[in-house]
Design goal:
The chain has 371 residues and is mostly helical. The chain is built from 16 helices and three strands.
Length: 371
């Protein structure tokens, strides 16, 4: 009798050499490296190479990959035109989803390495789509793409129209590293299921973006800031939480589907959040966050996850709230494309079973006049 597991919980759907989430001990591994060994020591570009090739690059390999990524930043004129005409009220994730899908219309890659080239192009372009839409909805000009900035620095440059400080760029770079991949999460699974039909890579990444958009996945970090804003002040934290407990409401950024102990990415973002809020003279956000985390540990035995602190980091960098999930998508594209390439290297169509819970067979069709 096949096992029934709603949400495929506990089911191993495939093998991967890309990353592993060890929820029982709170460990995240990228191709043999503990995330604590990587965060703050290597750049996002190095992580991209690691996820795609299974090894950290040497200098010449890093230079080659960096050059390829930067050369692919320009968007087709038709995609830029779409971004300009998109409703300013549209959600950034909706615009990114459509923009990525449109990119497939202008793809003319051929040859054995075509999908690898597509992975480079998608990883390079997704941040441009997000940033350009943000500029358009503000009625601002679109800064020309540059090839002298890192992926993180270039995104901040595009949304603000000026080159960011090294500290700001380094902070976002670490966030990119922490979000780049996370095992067989919902959006990665979507990408693999989609591409397993041997459709195109753009369809797979579009599917992943649509999945990440949901508030139970990538949208959670936006919910954290809205929660903090709703609470408003440090003295309101405890009574607000009591109100939520009484309503059995979910507390955003707390708990994780896989991690049974502390999310290993959370401490890195927590440290960055503390540093940034101290520098900005706005410590109330992190103080509120710390109190929420403390109460949730004590009363619900739940820990903060990566979304809980990444929200404060992005907010402190001056990034608009509705760009939090797009940042997640920008960094996770490195992982999505890695999984797509891995899936295609040894492909098998996903076709799980389902348990039928409808009426037993035996019904007969009556004439419509008798129904």
């Amino acid at each position: 009798m096949p096992l029934v597991a709603k949400g495929l919980e506990g089911i191993i759907a495939n093998t991967t050499a890309i990353s592993d989430v060890r929820g029982d001990i709170g460990q995240l591994i990228y191709a043999g490296y503990d995330i604590n060994e990587l965060a703050g020591k290597v750049s996002f570009e190095e992580i991209i190479h690691l996820l795609w090739h299974g090894e950290l690059p040497n200098q010449s390999q890093l230079d080659a990959l960096t050059s390829k990524l930067r050369s692919q930043r320009s968007l087709p004129a038709e995609v830029i035109d779409f971004i300009k005409k998109a409703p300013h009220s549209a959600g950034p994730m909706d615009v990114i989803r459509t923009g990525v899908s449109m990119l497939g219309l202008f793809d003319h890659e051929t040859g054995d390495d075509a999908n690898y080239k597509r992975a480079i192009a998608l990883t390079a372009k997704i941040g441009i789509i997000a940033a350009y839409f943000h500029r358009c909805r503000q009625g601002k000009d679109l800064p020309p793409v540059r090839t002298d900035l890192s992926e993180a620095a270039h995104f901040l440059y595009l949304i603000n129209g000026e080159v960011p400080s090294k500290e700001a760029a380094d902070t976002l770079d670490v966030a990119y590293v922490l979000h780049a991949d996370h095992g067989m999460n919902a959006s990665t699974f979507s990408a693999r299921v989609t591409v397993a039909t041997l459709t195109d890579v753009y369809s797979a990444i579009t599917s992943a973006i649509g999945t990440l958009k949901g508030p139970l996945h990538g949208g959670a970090n936006e919910g954290v800031i809205h929660m903090l804003q709703e609470i408003g002040s440090e003295e309101r934290v405890d009574p607000w939480l009591e109100e939520q407990f009484a309503k059995k409401a979910k507390i955003m950024g707390i708990g994780h589907r896989v991690y049974k102990v502390l999310d290993p990415r959370a401490p890195h973002l927590r440290n960055m959040a503390i540093k940034l809020t101290e520098q900005l003279g706005e410590p109330k956000w992190i103080r509120m966050s710390e109190r929420i985390a403390e109460v949730m540990r004590e009363k619900k035995h739940l820990n903060a996850n990566v979304d809980f602190y990444s929200a404060t980091v992005y907010y402190s960098l001056g990034i608009p709230t509705d760009l939090f999930t797009p940042i997640f998508a920008i960094s996770r594209t490195a992982g999505w494309t890695a999984h797509v390439l891995e899936q295609l290297a040894d492909n098998r169509l996903y076709r799980p079973l389902s348990e039928y819970t409808g009426p037993e067979v035996g019904k007969t069709v009556k004439p419509i006049s008798e129904r």
